[in-house]
């Protein structure tokens, strides 16, 4: 069982994080598709902090004896999921940058050929 002080800190932290996330979404500083995982994590933390006995049940379901070990497991798993999703997005962005760079090079080459042919005439 977690202490009341820690429970309050977790709830306040979750609410503040959620408000910051909503503000970033509102100002278009963060896309909705990237924020969905964070929203899920914040809701999960808030539910577990409001109902700490559920965490013991989650630990039992996972076959983990101590709830604090389940907390570490879930935190590490969450970080791995976030890292994986960021790696996918970085790979996608890198491929898009490469494609756009190649298109830009082709367009510059074509523009130079057009300028050269206009200067010869």
Automatic annotation (TrEMBL):
It comes from Paenibacillus xylanilyticus. The keyword ATP-binding does not apply. Keywords: Coiled coil, Membrane, Transmembrane, Transmembrane helix. This is DUF2304 domain-containing protein. Residues 90-117 form a coiled coil. It holds the Pfam family DUF2304. The chain crosses the membrane at residues 6-25, 37-58, 70-88.
């Amino acid at each position: 069982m977690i202490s009341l002080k820690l429970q309050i800190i977790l709830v306040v932290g979750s609410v503040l994080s959620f408000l910051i996330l909503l503000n970033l979404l509102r100002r278009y500083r963060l896309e909705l598709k990237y924020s969905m995982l964070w929203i899920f994590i914040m809701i999960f933390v808030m539910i577990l902090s409001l109902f700490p006995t559920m965490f013991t049940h989650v630990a039992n379901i996972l076959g983990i004896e101590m709830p604090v070990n389940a907390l570490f497991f879930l935190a590490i798993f969450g970080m791995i999921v976030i890292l994986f999703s960021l790696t996918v997005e970085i790979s996608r962005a890198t491929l898009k940058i490469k494609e756009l760079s190649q298109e830009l090079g082709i367009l510059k080459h074509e523009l130079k050929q057009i300028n050269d042919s206009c200067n010869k005439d």
